Amino acid sequence: MHYAEITGWGKCVPPARISNQDIATVVDTSDEWISSRTGIKARHVSHVSTAELATVAAQRALDCAGIDAKDLDLVLVATCTPSTVVANTASEVQQRLGATGAAACDSNAACSGFLYALQMATAQIQAGMIKRAVVIAAERMSWYINWARRDSAVLFGDGAGAVVLEATEQALGLLASKSGCDSSDRSILHIENFGSNINKYEAIGGSELHFVGPEIFKRAVKGMSGACDDVLNQAQLSLDDIDVLVPHQANLRIIQAIQQRLKVEDDKVMVNIDEYGNTSAATIAIALCEAVERGMIKPGANIMSAAFGAGLTWAASYIKWGQRVTPVRQSSAELPPCPQTGLELIADAVAACQK
């Protein structure tokens, strides 16, 4: 049987940062209000496109794996903030990487997107259809934000993460997964004024994100915890067998509720929402990379990951890590310099929203 080992990993976080103190100059809020309710202390704002974020994360993952882009069979981009819809964003990433001949596809499951995409690419490798893939989760959530709305303006950030999957005969990589969607309540988390349902000839205002926080909280905890239970049963594992929990970084309270429900110790839970906020599909991909960097993921580690997003989609995955936790080669992939601060980058958008 074929398996899909994670042999490379890389992240790309834009340099421009907006602290809670900074955002308090834009909307009526404070560091105490934000951090006590969400656990967020800062978020990063991109000066480049989603495709550029994705490309740098992917190149770093390829360098980590020690393979060249021309050896890829698939470039899969999970995003709900594509640079372009037609042609897809993955095709631009494929072009930028020089992954000549690789299939290129976008997928959108919002915050669950990385785990959905990981399942898709793994299934192709398991079926013998491909041998190597790069799975990227990249988001520019700041593009959707209405900077006059405190409830959403403080939550989201930009960034990207990627992993390289390679076929192996060893039982490594994604070994068990469960995904689903509670579409009956899809209206509680949505982007308005976006997509082909709208009348493109009518002036309707900017696109912005709307959500019902308390309802999302309840469904996220239930959906993610239940999916983790299903995956553990599928993999015939107990919670004691899990070395690291890498949850979606939407709200620290949600993470803590899932941790308590699953009875996982603090030192086994990867948390970085304080620095990045919610980067949608990119949260787990970035967190996975940082868990390796922090030494939380060791050779042979058992990793549980779970996410919940718009749709309302949910997913959980059990990943068996291989033996390598250091890059094969160092990467020189970088974003172009950003001469502006985070507040300077969003200044025009803030002015428009405040009108």
| Total number of strands | 13
**Spans of 5+ residues with little confidence (pLDDT < 50)?**
none
Q: Predict the CATH topology.
A: Peroxisomal Thiolase, Chain A, domain 1
Major sheet attributes: 5 strands, mixed
Report the total helices: 11
Strand order of the largest sheet: 1-7-6-4-5
Tell me, briefly, the overall form. globular
Order of helices and strands: EEHHEHEHEHEHEEEEHEHHHEEH
Please give the CATH class. Alpha Beta
Which structural class matches the secondary elements?
A: alpha/beta
Q: Tell me the domain tally.
A: 1
For CATH, the homologous superfamily is named as Thiolase/Chalcone synthase
pLDDT average, as an integer?
91
- CA-based gyration radius: 19 Å
User: What percent of residues are in strands?
Assistant: 15-25%
Measured as a percent range, the helix fraction is: 25-40%
Task: Specify the CATH architecture.
Answer: 3-Layer(aba) Sandwich
Terminal CA distance: 59 Å
Keywords: Acyltransferase, Cytoplasm, Fatty acid biosynthesis, Fatty acid metabolism, Lipid biosynthesis, Lipid metabolism, Multifunctional enzyme, Transferase
Region (ACP-binding): 249-253
Family: Belongs to the thiolase-like superfamily. FabH family.
Subunit structure: Homodimer.
